[in-house]
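dumping these here so i dont lose them again. two proteins, back to back, each one seq then structure tokens. dont judge the mess
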Amino acid sequence: MKIILATDHAGFELKEKVKHNLINKGFSVKDFGAKTYNSSDDYPDFIIPAAKFLAKNNNCLGIILGGSGQGEAIAANRINGIRAAVYYGGPLDIIKLSRMHNNANILSLGARFLDEEYTMEVIELWIKTDFEGERHLRRIKKLDI
């Protein structure tokens, strides 16, 4: 499975660690940037191209990062076909439900609230959790208008 990554400066350091960990676990990774740390970059410049790519490639999942993950999820969710869920801590059931009930195809992480080890635990849980389908599919189909 291919994993799409994107971040701005606030998530840059954690994205680099996530990328390294995913590659070591055998995942194919496509990194939309930021490629270098730049404190004045803007998250839409990286998030929107990543979300557009993911919307056209169903065999991928996306992980985007920012300070809180909120703005990044808002940007990604403007693209039809994208369902970005935000996580910056709290019960892990949030992660499972984002996949089981919402079929989230992007996980937006708040890098200022998560460390590397916990982030990888969250990502692994999110990737391995399957969509339940059925009644949830009916609801998801109503989102892309």
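---- next one ----
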Amino acid sequence: MKKLILAAIAVLWAQACNADAMRMAVTTSFDSSGLAEVLLPAIKEDLDLDVRLLVVGTGQALRLGEAGDVDAVLVHSKAAEKAFVAAGHGTHRREIMYNDFVIIGPVADPAQISVASSAAVAVQKIEDAQTPFVSRGDDSGTHKAELKIWASAGLDADGFGPWYRAVGAGMGAALNTAAGMQAYVLSDRASWLNFGNKDGLALLFSGDPVLFNQYAFLPVDPSKNAALRNDLAMKLEDWLTSPRAAELINGYEINGEKLFVFNAQNE
């Protein structure tokens, strides 16, 4: 009996090893949005492909790609993505979908950002009032976007006082910290809509074009090591840019609100 059990385990292990599987580094905001729970089963059904996600910030995702530790990355920081491809770490950059960043804060809005005329004015109001602000502080796409907004207002986050708290964590953790502190925080809209602990917080500012948030797929250069599955990365890219993916991405809603817009195109 023991031999039969061991033989069965060996067969199952061999089948698992032979199954198509690839590794993709994705942002915590993508994971927090809940979209992966929609896309991954469909990918498995359509392609018989297991996509194993490594959930990190954009900066860390690109570093995993640079090291050849993943087959592809799905991130949201255009300048960093273009530099990644230009340096030879990725074969190309393919835009997939977008949403936007929003500024979340206490319902009472002590800095009065809801009446701001731009994102730059909104963060200037927060700095003037020195009300608590939670930063991802993790070199993620959201963190990079936040720093650009401060810079657009002529402000440098490195010089801020204790009211500015960099948590060095993902989007869900940053939102939870903001809820606990009744603080402002920059979030992607999808993560906010999928966030369960909204008590005391509200979406207070959105709509500035600078808050546009594009996601892109980058296959890692297969010359980095022989174990990389560029063939599977390309197979996945074809699916992510297909009508099937467009339908699922555009159809993903929470409480009637759309979280992403499909806009796949070559650069």
